[in-house]
Hints:
Elements: E1 6-11, H1 14-18, H2 21-34, E2 41-46, E3 58-61, E4 65-67, H3 75-84, H4 96-99, H5 105-109, H6 132-137, H7 142-148, H8 152-162, H9 174-183, E5 190-195, H10 204-211, H11 213-227, E6 231-236, H12 241-256, E7 272-277, H13 287-294, E8 318-322, H14 323-327, H15 329-335, H16 337-341, E9 351-358, E10 364-369, H17 374-381, E11 390-395, E12 401-404, H18 414-419, E13 428-433, H19 438-452, H20 458-475, H21 482-497, H22 501-516, H23 518-527
Parallel strand pairs: 1-2, 5-6, 5-8, 6-7, 9-13
Antiparallel strand pairs: 1-3, 3-4, 9-10, 11-12, 11-13
Helix pairs in contact: 2-3, 7-11, 7-15, 8-9, 8-11, 10-11, 10-12, 19-20, 19-22, 20-21, 20-22, 21-22
Amino acid sequence: MITYRSMVLISHDPASIQLGADAVQAAFLRELARFDLQDEVSVSLIEDIGKSFASPLVIVYPEAVIYGRVTVEDVPHLVEEHLYKGRIVEEKVAPSHELSGRVAWVSARKGTLPAETRIVLKNVGVIDPNSVEDYIANDGYLGLGNALGMTPEQVIALITESGLQGRGGAGFPAGLKWGFVRQARADQKYVICNADESEPGTFKDRVLIEGDPHQIIEAMLIAAYAVGATEGYVYLRGEYQLAIQRMETAIAHARSVGLLGDNILGSALSFNLHLHTGAGAYICGEETALIESIEGKRGEPRSRPPYPTTEGLWGKPTLVNNVETLANIPPILRHGADWYRAYGTPSSPGTKVCTLLGNLNVTGLIEVPMGITLREMISIYGKGIKDGHFKMAQTGGSGGSIIPASLQDTPMDFASFARAGVVLGSGALLICNDSVCVVDLARVLLNFFRKESCGKCSPCRICTQKAYEILTDISKGRGSMGDLDALREISIQLNELSNCGLGQTAAVPLRDTLTHFRDEVEAHIRLKVCPAGVCSMS
Ligand SMILES: Cc1cc2nc3c(=O)[nH]c(=O)nc-3n(C[C@H](O)[C@H](O)[C@H](O)COP(=O)(O)O)c2cc1C
Ligand code: SF4
């Protein structure tokens, strides 16, 4: 392996690409060659997280200096001064306020925020996602090596001991699910990575794949070994073009170095991995609709049981795990269950990658230990409410709970949230100040659900449409008190009669609006007033 004295990392997220990151990379390579530094300084592209007003960023190690808004014209000077003469170019150093819009590792290391706890995002923004060598140099595929030295049953026992719960929304114990697939008898089994991520406001899986795709491939190899699968699919949201590119490259590299294919690392494990892109339907994130979609059918959920663990893709036992769930696997195999359980809470070990959105001073992506409260998230990482006061939060994406300020001290873990009747879901946290109207929020959410309902079962198809119409009436001053009973009844029917999680979760915002914000809804009906001043009432 080549050792370099300096590293240049160039941010390569969609915004940075638009602002010329590729040309900046080419200019660095050119200028380094001109100074004969190509064997001393490496140039890599890294994933950038969250909002930065200074993109594209160029980070130079070992000094960890961050240059902002770097253009092709800046590069000759940066190379000559910093990399040739060893002098930092102060006038191009990104001011910290331009980085403070990012809940990211850079701002943590600048001392503007407490450092995050990084398990699954450890490499994101640090290694070159297009380089299998970079991943291997950062302990990559070590977890697979450890797994191959164990029996499949021991691997599953380790995942069970770690207490890892699925991060796709429901928090189902990963070890238990792996055990079900292992026990199923069949001539063929599959592993699927669910990277559909069509939940509005959620983009954690995209960043995990764009920033560290080999971590997911390694996890799928470990899963395949544990459950006895030989074929796998990454089901990736079609709009995620950069993630698709990165995953395609990573799969090709893994194949070229013998990490995919037959007898991997000289073992008995053989595993082929395919990439399947979705066409933009929210319902295709539901695991059985996803399986139908891979089979080339219309993406509609199946009736369950049977579950995919026994009858999944092409009728064979199939393990479906979320991207973030899988991203936890290699670190657990590297460090063990006790190490993992040291993070988070006893009932929900580990971390959660969350997207902080809405009326906050700082928004973006963050990895925090399970058990942190919403109040801490808002004050520490969100740097407080932007304009006005904290009114409510929606946790877990569009099907998540709408919770009032009084619940902001609930620890954020699956068990505590469930006790408080709150859904943790995908980890999207939409924070609203008092300029947001709860009726309007619920109306927008139900509009989403009525459009995304696949229409297979009538409770979901009819109730989401009806709830949207009632909420629209209320927001226009045409509501009646009877509408409150109708909405309550609709939420019960959605929850109890829907065939899948889409209809069931559509009930949640309705239920929470009526439980926590009834006064505000009544003001729309009785007084024809929108207290937040959002609804036109005409
Ligand atoms: C409407 C709907 C959309 C979903 N979308 C996703 C998704 O985008 N990604 C995901 O991992 N799980 C999604 N799920 C949950 C999956 O059905 C499944 O539970 C999950 O992939 C299991 O992975 P886990 O055990 O690792 O959490 C969705 C569920 C529903 C009902
Ligand atoms: S609940 Fe909705 S999305 Fe799910 S199967 Fe029924 S109609 Fe389709």
